[in-house]
């Protein structure tokens, strides 16, 4: 009778977990994705082959028993959860939380950008889970990227406890044949039989380095080769290649003497985890295309939502818009136009607040300082002007030898940069000035720094938040870094084939996006000008911006003004296009302008964006809630 009840119970267990798909197979186990019919939750079922009595004596089932015993007693958000256990015939099935991917897949996926904040989040979650294990006197003994599992919400869980073991007994002798070789601590390679938490900490250090390098740090082919690679690598990373706080964490983990390796609790107190940027929220962590947003397949098309967005129409210019910019708070939107008169608007309701009167030619560039105290403009009338934001009064004027093409405040607003075009025998030049000493009546000012630009003229410009480096985009598609202390070029790259119309920062200033006449927008690393991503269209791109809160970019363009032969929005491609920043895929368009879009900008809070076009209109588009709730299926 008892056997019958037991048999029925096992049959019920098997029926409870409805197989969905096969996930993988190892030497001793097969893993399936399944649905728990009682809860409707998705789970992973690991069916372990116990084998014959002889095989069991060889220890094939020991890992399963060890895993069951430990996971039944361990409960932490960063450890894989064992939900159920049942046996059938010669198999034991373990039911786990379903995890969509692992860190190895994320590292190998070239479409994913791993920022410092992303890496910080993954390592923080790893250390929190590992700290819990060590506090419970358990060594994992097999930490590696494919044992660090990640779900679609960005939660990382440590998995595979087949080699995990209690530690702490001073007389206990352990095997040194643990941990996959590439993540094996030096003492294990030397054959140590007594070891502690240091072996797990070393593995975390190797994983951290792999997140940074995108390849294993010590890929040894044998134990001897592994030791050779370890001793060959030490000392190579420098403060110039990795930040001080990150280097401190790596050096704390990859210590040859296991006694001196820091514990989890000590690592978690290091400055790396409290310094900016903060760890990326789990829901914002990048995931591989095949598993991203699988739970949201039933949601309505985001493209449809974007097309349905109803904008505010700001009409006050008589000619084409050349540039738009928000102030830091986002309550004001500034616009420049070929009609000579920059305007300022309330971004919330589209009401025009004022006009800056004084230029006699097309205004090509504008900027506003972070306190919304000063406003600047550069124009085709060969003048650079500084204005009081509150009164609209001109407080500074510099006459130039040619048109002012770009202008920008430094972070402190005590300095400004502007560039002038080539004209006749006049070269393109870059000027750095002190905004505190400029005077309206003088008409000129001796610059702090004056740099003649050899070759192609400057067509766009950025200034870093330390006031030390300026990045210029040029009409031939080149991008150049300038050291302001030295007044010299640092680095130049050429990834575009034609004029760069616009460049804009991401929120933290680590990356920037370019817009080019060669029909592309491109994402670059700010430090080394490394090309990260490219967004392609059928027409010239005049402007591009990066969302401050989503992994989105918006690009605007259509045709060059001189090439416009029709006002048809369909033929002219006069629409804003939205791309996923990481996957480079277009997911939506917004039409409305009757001419090329010359400038786009995200609101600082990321809840809306604006576009300015050749038609003289500025359009402010506010996203509805579905835009932020939607997850993309790639």
- Please identify the structural class as seen in this structure: alpha+beta
Shape: elongated
CATH superfamily of the largest domain: YVTN repeat-like/Quinoprotein amine dehydrogenase
User: Major β-sheet, in short?
Assistant: 5 strands, antiparallel
Question: How many structural domains does the protein architecture include?
Answer: 3
Keywords: ATP-binding, Cytoplasm, Initiation factor, Kinase, Nucleotide-binding, Phosphoprotein, Protein biosynthesis, Repeat, Serine/threonine-protein kinase, Transferase, WD repeat
Family: Belongs to the eIF-3 subunit I family.
Main location: cytoplasm
Binding site for ATP: 23-31, 46-47
Summarize the structure in words.
One of its GO terms (molecular function) is cyclin-dependent protein serine/threonine kinase activity. Keywords: ATP-binding, Cytoplasm, Initiation factor, Kinase, Nucleotide-binding, Phosphoprotein, Protein biosynthesis, Repeat, Serine/threonine-protein kinase, Transferase, WD repeat. The protein is of the alpha+beta class and 634 residues long. The chain is 20% helix and 34% strand. The protein contains 14 helices and 38 strands. The strands form ten sheets. The protein has a five-stranded antiparallel beta sheet, sandwiched between helices. A four-stranded antiparallel beta sheet has the order 11-38-37-36, with no helix packed on it. The protein has a four-stranded antiparallel beta sheet with strand order 12-13-14-15, with no helix packed on it. 40% of the residues are buried.
């Amino acid at each position: 009778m008892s056997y019958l009840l037991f048999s029925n119970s096992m049959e019920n267990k098997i029926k409870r977990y409805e197989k969905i798909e096969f996930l993988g197979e190892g030497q001793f186990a097969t893993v399936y994705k399944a649905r728990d019919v009682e809860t409707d939750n998705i789970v992973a079922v690991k069916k372990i082959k116990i084998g014959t009595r002889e095989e069991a004596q060889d220890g094939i089932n020991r890992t399963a028993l060890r895993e069951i015993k430990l996971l039944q007693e361990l409960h932490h958000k960063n450890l894989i959860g064992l939900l159920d256990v049942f046996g059938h015939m010669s198999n034991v099935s373990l039911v786990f939380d379903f995890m969509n991917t692992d860190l190895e897949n994320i590292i190998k996926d070239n479409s994913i950008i791993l920022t410092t904040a992303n890496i910080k989040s993954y390592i923080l979650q790893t250390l929190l889970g590992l700290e819990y294990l060590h506090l419970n006197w358990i060594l994992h003994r097999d930490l590696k990227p494919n044992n660090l599992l990640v779900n679609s919400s960005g939660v990382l869980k440590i998995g595979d406890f087949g080699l995990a073991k209690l530690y702490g007994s001073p007389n206990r002798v352990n095997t040194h044949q643990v941990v996959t070789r590439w993540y094996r601590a030096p003492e294990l390679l030397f054959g140590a039989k007594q070891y502690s938490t240091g072996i797990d900490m070393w593995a975390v250090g190797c994983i951290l380095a792999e997140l940074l390098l995108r390849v294993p740090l010590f890929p040894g082919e044998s134990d001897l080769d592994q030791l050779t690679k370890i001793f060959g690598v030490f000392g190579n990373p420098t403060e110039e290649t990795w930040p001080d706080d990150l280097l401190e964490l790596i050096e704390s983990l990859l210590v040859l003497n296991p006694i001196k390796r820091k514990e989890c609790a000590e690592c978690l107190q290091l400055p790396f985890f409290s310094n900016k940027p903060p760890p990326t929220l789990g829901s914002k962590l990048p995931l591989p295309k095949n598993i991203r947003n699988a739970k949201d397949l039933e949601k309505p098309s985001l493209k449809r939502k974007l097309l349905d967005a109803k904008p505010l129409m700001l009409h006050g210019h008589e000619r084409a818009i050349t540039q738009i910019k928000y102030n830091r708070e986002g309550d004001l939107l500034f616009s420049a136009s070929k009609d000579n008169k920059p305007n300022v608007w309330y971004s919330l309701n589209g009401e025009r607040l004022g006009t800056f009167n004084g230029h006699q030619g097309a205004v090509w560039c504008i900027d506003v300082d972070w306190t919304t105290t000063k406003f600047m403009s550069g124009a085709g009338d060969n003048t650079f002007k500084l204005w009081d934001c509150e009164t609209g009064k001109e407080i500074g004027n510099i006459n130039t030898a040619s048109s002012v093409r770009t202008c920008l405040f430094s972070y402190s607003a005590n300095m400004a940069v502007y560039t002038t075009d080539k004209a006749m025998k006049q070269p393109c030049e870059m000027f750095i000035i002190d905004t505190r000493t400029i005077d309206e009546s003088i008409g000129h000012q001796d610059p702090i720094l004056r740099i003649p630009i050899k070759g192609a003229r400057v067509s766009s410009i950025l200034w870093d938040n330390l006031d030390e480096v300026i990045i210029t985009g040029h009409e031939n598609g080149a991008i150049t870094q300038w050291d302001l202390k030295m007044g010299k070029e640092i680095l130049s790259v050429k990834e575009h084939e034609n004029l760069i119309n616009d460049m804009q920062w991401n929120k933290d200033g680590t990356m920037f996006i370019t817009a080019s006449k060669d029909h592309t927008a491109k994402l670059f690393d700010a430090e080394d000008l490394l090309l990260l991503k490219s967004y392609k269209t059928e027409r010239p791109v005049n402007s591009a911006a990066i969302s401050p809160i989503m992994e989105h970019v918006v690009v605007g363009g259509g045709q060059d003004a001189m090439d416009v032969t029709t006002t048809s929005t369909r033929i002219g491609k006069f629409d804003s296009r939205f791309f996923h920043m990481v996957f480079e895929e277009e997911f939506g368009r917004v039409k409305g302008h009757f001419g090329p879009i010359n400038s786009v900008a995200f609101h600082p809070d990321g809840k809306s964006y604006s576009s300015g076009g050749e038609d003289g209109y500025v359009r402010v588009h506010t996203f509805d809630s579905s835009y932020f709730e939607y997850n993309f299926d790639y």
